[in-house]
Write a structure and sequence with these properties.
By secondary structure, the chain is of the alpha/beta class. The chain contains 5 helices and 7 strands. The chain has one domain (2-139): Rossmann fold (3-Layer(aba) Sandwich). Helix 2 packs parallel to helix 5 and helix 3 (70-88) packs across helix 4 (101-111).
């Protein structure tokens, strides 16, 4: 089973185009990225604008967040899960979602339809400080 981590993008970004793994600069993103690298076979960034992004994909800085509309969240979940399915061609996946509830819920709702996927949300219900501490404790020796 392939271990996949999905890391949420962040509002704070580098000033110029670069690889997505370096574009997002918040402390939470950096810790989540480090956790994903250490604890998964493959990881992606989930972005309201770009959906599912490979870490080495070059992106321009942008200012866009997941709109509050349920229709958009549904479409976001469809895009992310479809791209995951295509990238892994029906293989069983063990997915850890390191994202806020709006992003995670959209992915989980669509991902539960794929019975070959196990989906975890290790940060679910944690406040920002707790998320940072959880990631810090599990990333650094």
């Amino acid at each position: 089973m392939t271990r996949v981590a999905l890391v949420a993008c962040s509002k704070t970004k580098a000033a110029a185009a670069c690889e997505a793994q370096h574009l997002y600069t918040s402390p939470l993103f950096r810790l989540a990225r480090n956790w994903a690298i250490a604890h998964s076979d493959v990881w992606y960034i989930v972005s309201a604008r770009h959906f599912l992004v490979a870490p080495e994909t070059w992106l321009e800085p942008y200012d866009y967040t997941l709109p509050p509309h349920k229709d958009y969240a549904f479409q976001f979940g469809v895009h992310v899960t479809t791209r995951l399915r295509l990238a892994h061609l029906g293989k069983p996946l063990d997915i850890s979602i390191l994202a806020g509830a709006r992003y995670a819920d959209a992915i989980v709702e669509r991902g539960q339809r794929n019975h070959a996927w196990q989906i975890h949300q290790p940060l679910r219900g944690l406040q920002i400080g707790q998320r940072l501490a959880w990631l810090q404790e599990r990333t650094n020796p």
